[in-house]
Every structure is written in C-alpha cells, then in structure tokens.
Design brief:
It is a single chain. By secondary structure, this protein is mainly α. It has a two-stranded antiparallel ribbon. Helix 2 crosses helix 3 and helix 3 runs antiparallel to helix 4. The longest helix has 36 residues. The chain is elongated, with a radius of gyration of 21 Å.
C-alpha cells in the first residue's frame, strides 16, 4: 500500500501474474487462435494449400504442447494472484474449473492429434522437416476414435476460449476488480480510496 503524492489517497497495485506468465499467456493465445482457424481452413479446402496448412497446424500443436507444459510448471512454482475476495463462490468455482479445462485441452488436444496421426500410420512432420516419433501403434479403429475426439473437442475448445474471453471482459469492464489487469501486458495501478473519501 502506498500514498499518492498528489492526491494524498492510498493506492494499491493490482496483484499480477509474473512477466513470464503474461508472455506465455499471450503467446499461447495467438498460437491457439491461429491453430483453431487453420484447423477450420484445412478441413474446408481441397486446394494445394491443404498440405502446408496441415504442416503448420501440426507444428503449432507441438509448440502449444511445449508452451503449455512450461506454463503449467511455472504456474505450479510461482502460483497466481488470488481472485477478488468478494467474488461469489459459484463464479470462483467456474473460474477454477474453466482454467482446469483450458490446461487439459491445451495439453490434451496436441496429444490427441499426435496419437491420431500415429494410429493412422501418418508421419508427424513439422515445419522444417522435423519428424516426431509415433506414440501409438497403427490401428484403424483407434485412429477413428481419436479423430472424432480431436474434431469434437476443438468445438469445446472454441467455446471455452469464448467463455474465458467473456469472463475477462466482464471482470475488466463491469466488475473492474483487477482480474483483467493481472494478466494484461500493460496496466496502470488501480486507485483505492479509504471509506469516507
């Protein structure tokens, strides 16, 4: 808690995620949105662009898997700012569950894709001609199951991301409780006034 030299009011700085956590968050957000839209594009085209889109999609998936594992490790070590104390219990529960869901999908979707290609007997080749090893033995039945899981969970991922973005905007522009600022790349300290001022 500090006192503003001009106004004389006490101010408090919003607790924030670390710089590394904020960097990982926004980098992963860009990668995930790009990968989801590329996934939609490659499933709706039969042009020569299909193969480059597939290669880019696989590469982004692997990058997201690595970044998600790093982000999870950092989160376990560094922790996260607490949610506002006056947040209703159901909203707090929803926030925690949505984060668990996002981590599960950020890690699970690339693994599903990798496993799906392995089960189908397809080489997992990334940009730069880097080939990953197969993680499952070839199986047509398993390939079909994993393909369906990967396809339908992509819609759940879209929905969860939309919910996450909506919640962030709700905190930032309606509640104005510092939650959005805690992950913003740049934010000004919030000013808090004492009762009666």
């Amino acid at each position: 808690m500090t006192r503003n030299a001009v106004t004389g009011r006490s101010t408090s700085v919003t607790p924030r995620f670390s710089a590394l956590q904020r960097l990982l968050h926004w980098l992963m957000a860009a990668c995930i949105l790009a990968m989801l839209f590329i996934g939609v594009g490659m499933n709706s085209t039969v042009t020569p662009k299909y193969l480059p889109l597939v290669e880019t999609h696989k590469t982004l998936g692997f990058v997201i898997l690595l970044l998600a594992l790093i982000r999870l490790a950092v989160r376990l070590v560094v922790g996260a700012p607490p949610l506002p104390a006056d947040l209703p219990p159901l909203i707090k529960l929803g926030a925690h569950l949505s984060h668990y869901g996002l981590y599960a999908l950020m890690i699970g979707m690339p693994l599903l894709g990798w496993g799906m290609l392995s089960a189908g007997g397809y080489p997992v080749v990334l940009l730069g001609h880097i080939q990953l090893p197969a993680i499952l033995a070839p199986s047509d039945a398993l390939h079909t199951v994993l393909w369906n899981a990967h396809f339908y969970l992509a819609f759940a991922f879209f929905g969860l991301i939309a919910l996450h973005a909506g919640a962030a905007l709700f905190h930032g522009f309606i509640r104005r409780d510092g939650v959005l600022e805690s992950m913003a790349s740049v934010s000004a300290p919030r000013e808090a006034t004492r009762p009666g001022k």
